[in-house]
Task: inverse folding
């Protein structure tokens, strides 16, 4: 099933790349607005990030359903059904990859949001105070430890995912 999942992951690579490029453009635009102190530029890029985060994750799910529909109704990918795997394994791989892809894109948007948050703290001039103040420390340490654990879990999962088929 790992090889099937790897195939499905590679199959939807183009849409993920488009999303990542658009996300990088928005984050760089936001950070550029921070550097040149243009509030309108920061606002527009933050709005695009926020609105985009809702629609892109939804779009990734819909795209997975459309790809499954196309695989079932056309002869475009008939070879996958001829592999010596059960239908349930093939459908399960498609379902798991769709869920993983949505979580991956969600994680990208969370990381982009954290980058923009740190950029905004730097713009306001409170970044040094966050780490120095005792009033923020318990909340900051707990939030940083949660983010650290989630990123570690994502790295372990992706490492397992990409090496499972080998």
Result:
């Amino acid at each position: 099933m790992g090889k099937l999942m790897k195939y499905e992951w590679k199959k939807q690579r183009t849409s993920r790349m488009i999303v990542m490029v658009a996300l990088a453009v928005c984050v760089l635009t936001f950070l550029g607005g921070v550097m040149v102190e243009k509030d309108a530029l920061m606002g527009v890029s933050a709005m695009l990030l926020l609105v985009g985060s809702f629609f892109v994750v939804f779009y990734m799910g819909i795209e997975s359903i459309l790809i499954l529909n196309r695989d079932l109704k056309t002869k475009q990918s008939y070879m996958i059904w001829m592999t010596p795997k059960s239908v349930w394994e093939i459908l399960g791989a498609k379902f798991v990859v769709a869920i993983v892809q949505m979580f991956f894109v969600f994680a990208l948007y969370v990381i982009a949001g954290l980058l923009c948050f740190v950029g905004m703290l730097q713009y306001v001039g409170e970044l040094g105070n966050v780490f120095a103040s005792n009033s923020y420390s318990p909340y900051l340490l707990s939030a940083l430890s949660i983010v650290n654990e989630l990123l570690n879990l994502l790295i372990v999962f992706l490492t397992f995912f990409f090496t499972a088929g080998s």
